[in-house]
Specification:
eleven-stranded mixed β-sheet, 31% helix
Length: 504
């Protein structure tokens, strides 16, 4: 998603001096520079990468995705069985404790899963409505009955939004307090959250795999300016930094004190289109935009060849990606003709840009120039990234480049979110296609993998034909760490395995 999505809490540029001040010098504390501040520690109330990537080491889930990002493995559920009819899942909980020393029980798991299904504040309720009942038969046993068989169900249990929280803790503290100072079920606890500055984590001695954890703590430090963040890691004021700009990769690779990590990802950057704004409601106009954009030029110029032109919202390498999906070639004259056929002239569009993001700003200028070749005028609105998400929700935009990374192995999550017409207005595009919506719902229930793949092929083809948004490019995760840091790794779904990271 956007940074799963790019809602930045503070964009004041921090100087190297201010960033260095207060950073723990303890050998066991890992400092990581990132763009955004966290927004919440309530798992069900965010869809941002910057939250999920911290959640993954503060909370544990019933079922995990492995380091390769390709298969499921036991988490807090040490084992499970599925009934022959695919409706009943019986989970056996392992011996584990929350950070306050209380046991993690089947009741906590049931509470967490029903909360993501039912809570009015849940951003993910649609994916969990398949749960009919969650019955606790004893402290170690959770029996979940589904309303119908569901192919992605086990995968959805691995999503950070479905993290296991303390029922007693939530009921005692209340959601607002828990969202600020959570009771951890994962490798680290939240020691302090300095809004707009940093999240300070410390090792959770009650984590069921505590012996696996080498670090004493982790500090996620918000440094919105890309250049400042890179300078700080080069100067040794940070141990690591994420979101390395494409333009800095080669330079950083030459620094003998650093390691640049190019990790396989499920990231896709795309151009959101507000289907409810004037002429953008016309398919021909959206097609014209697609023809007017030279994606290869964007990949070459902005990603320095590290990206690859995208052709589908399901990313390359992900389950059911359709490699032969339609790709409209760069053809400004075709774009002009489509606009003329639609009776549209002097099209002027407002393009919402996240200020301070080097790549976003480069893409914006390129798209403005390219669209001008087809007679389309684009007004760039550079906004504080703390405002852009609310503007997307409110529909106060025509175009905006955002990105998404998958959180689960199954394509259902992203498909539901971006074309399934759920509560999120199809990633704020307001795209509507009843046939696509029904096919998304049906694909979730289809248990035959061959039939299911064909359904996702059809979904990708139909969405592309409608120009639900414009696919731009796929790219790797790009991070950097100092050479005294070992096992700093991010899997294709974005999870950092900090429980295995070592600081020498």
């Amino acid at each position: 998603m956007l940074s799963k999505w790019m809602k930045i809490g503070m964009v004041t540029v921090m100087t190297s001096l201010s960033v260095g001040a207060g950073i723990a010098e303890a050998a066991g504390v890992l400092t990581i520079g990132r763009r955004e501040d966290s927004s919440t520690f309530d798992p069900i109330k965010t869809a941002q990468n910057i939250d999920f990537w911290v959640f993954a080491n503060v909370y544990d889930v019933m079922i995990r995705v492995d380091k390769t990002g390709t298969k499921l493995e036991p988490g807090l559920a040490e084992s499970w069985t599925v009934s022959d009819d695919g409706l009943t899942y019986t989970f056996t909980m392992r011996d584990a404790k929350f950070s306050d020393g209380s046991p993690i029980t089947a009741e906590d798991a049931a509470f967490s899963l029903l909360r993501i299904r039912d809570d009015e504040g849940s951003l993910w309720s649609d994916s969990y409505k398949i749960i009919d009942t969650a019955e606790v038969t004893d402290p170690k046993t959770l029996v979940i009955k589904l309303t119908s068989p569901s192919a992605p169900f086990l995968s959805t249990l691995a999503m950070p939004g479905a993290s296991i929280i303390s029922k007693a803790g939530m009921e005692k503290l209340g959601a607002d307090t828990y969202a600020e100072s959570p009771i951890a079920s994962g490798a680290f606890t939240v020691k302090e959250w300095r809004r707009g500055d940093r999240v300070i984590l410390e090792k959770n001695p009650n984590f069921w795999q505590a012996e696996r954890v080498s670090l004493d703590g982790v500090e996620w430090i918000s440094i919105p300016d890309d250049n400042t963040r890179m300078l700080d890691v080069q100067a040794g004021q940070l141990d690591a930094a994420i979101f390395v700009p494409f333009s800095r990769v080669e330079e950083l690779k030459k620094d003998k004190d650093l390691t640049v990590h190019l990790e396989t990802s499920t990231r896709e950057d795309h151009l959101l289109i507000n289907h409810e704004h004037g002429d953008l409601a016309k398919k021909e106009v959206r097609e014209a935009l697609d023809y007017a954009i030279d994606k290869k030029a964007i990949v070459d110029t902005v990603t320095f060849g590290l990206g690859e032109v995208a052709n589908s919202f399901i990313p390359k390498g992900a389950l059911y990606h359709y490699d032969d999906n339609l790709q409209r070639p760069y053809d400004p004259e075709k774009a002009k003709q489509l606009l003329a056929d639609a009776g549209v002239s002097n099209l002027t569009l407002d393009y919402l840009v996240n200020a301070g993001n080097e790549v976003d700003e480069q893409i914006a200028v390129l798209l403005q120039q390219q669209l001008q070749q087809s007679g389309i005028t684009v007004n760039l609105q550079k906004m504080d990234p703390s405002q852009t998400w609310d503007m997307l929700v409110d529909g106060d935009y025509d175009l905006s480049v955002m990105y998404w990374t998958n959180d689960i192995l199954d394509p259902d999550q992203k498909t539901t979110f971006v074309v399934g017409d759920d509560a999120n207005m199809n990633y704020m595009t307001r795209y509507k296609n009843e046939k696509v919506k029904q096919l998304v719902a049906d694909a979730r229930l289809e248990m035959d993998p061959v039939k299911r793949e064909q359904m996702y092929v059809e979904i990708q083809k139909m969405a592309k034909d409608d120009v639900h948004w414009i696919d731009l490019y796929y790219s790797p995760f790009i991070n950097v760490s100092r050479n005294n840091i070992e096992n700093f790794y991010q899997n294709p779904l974005g999870r950092f395995f900090l429980e295995d990271t070592v600081k020498n």
